[in-house]
Amino acid sequence: MVKILKMLFQEESNKVVEIIEKDIWGSLKDFLQIGISYGQGDQRIQITIGLLIILTLALLSTTFVLRWLRGLFTRRMENDDRLKFISVFKFIRYVVYLIVILLTMSAAGIDITLLLTASAALFVGLGLALQELFQDIIGGILIIVDKSLHVGDIIDVDGKVGKVFEIKLRTTRAITRDDKIIIIPNHHFISNIIYNYTQNHKSTREKIIVGVAYGSDVQLVTKILEEISVDHQGVLKNPKPFVMFDDFGDSALMFSLNFYIADSFSDPRIKSEMRYKIDEKFRENNITIPFPQRDVHLFQHSPFQHSSVANSEKSE
Question: Once rounded to an integer, what is the mean pLDDT over residues 115-136?
């Protein structure tokens, strides 16, 4: 009796396994094989539901791993360095996604060399069309890696002075002194000369050039300029301001007032206030700021003769 029950149980188990293999798993395999195909023979490329599911799972797994790595590398970074790393990491993430897609398709039996060969012309066209884009991305990576530019730096680009407030992978944004935004492609920082006023430190040396009339007391002029620079709140006391007698100009004695400030972005306002003060002090001390003058001398070697048109017609 026991043997008969074992045999019956074994037969039922075999039938269940057979049903699962043929009906359920077979139907699932047929469903996963549904898709579209391109080409014939060895050059055939087939995209199925199963392949799309595998790609989705691979991309989700890759996203999870990349997020974990990003958190691992940035958890001890400062906020500025973290933002720069995330910008570079975005570019790396796209490259990793592309590699994962190609490897998954290769593992699924698709000959990716055919796909790469077929898209070679497209890649060449995209490379030529997006040449400047790639240059901008490379420039952004170099800026972030070598730290040649930071948020808050004051730069001079094509005669425009601006304070950097955002550095991205492709562009850098700065606000000018007249409150306008300039968007700078990053390849400019590796191909052109850019003046960075605050690369080494925040303080910068500025100067005001002024001319006084010939015969003025140069010692008094020097003293007035030094006092004005020392009394101004925006001028640093250390390093100490100094005055230089630059040149004997065509119409004036040329002086330059050299001083240091902590915020070169507000340089025009500070210079304007000091120029007002210079003009006031010069008036109080009877020091004249001359304007360009020219003396014209006429030398006449022979008597001047006047002839009219009427006289010349009569003579004819």
Answer: 68
